[in-house]
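Moderator note: this is an archived Q&A kept for reference. The question asked for a predicted structure of one protein chain; the sequence and the answer are reproduced below.
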Amino acid sequence: FKPCYNKYAGDILGGVYLHVTDEDRFLPFKTGIAIIKTIYDLYPNDFIFLHDVYEFNSEYPAFNLLCGSDIIRKMILDGASLQEICDTWNEDENTFYNTRKNYLLY
């Protein structure tokens, strides 16, 4: 595809297009982790996590910042399964969903 704006405007780029057909069942964070893990598993000698500054942050690598810590990155590098990685956030996710029920207006 060829972006029309931002730093790659006008350049022809490769990529992946996800077409979500069931937004109620789609798990975007898990999907993103699965994609990153799969790329790493297929190309461990070519894949590297960026350590550059990410937007407003200069202390933490971008991936760690987006995931909330370095746990998921380390698990990917250590060869953990996708299920093992997902298990690290399942309890917190369940707590969040149960807590938020009290605050939903609709």
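Archived answer notes: The two ends are 39 Å apart (CA to CA).
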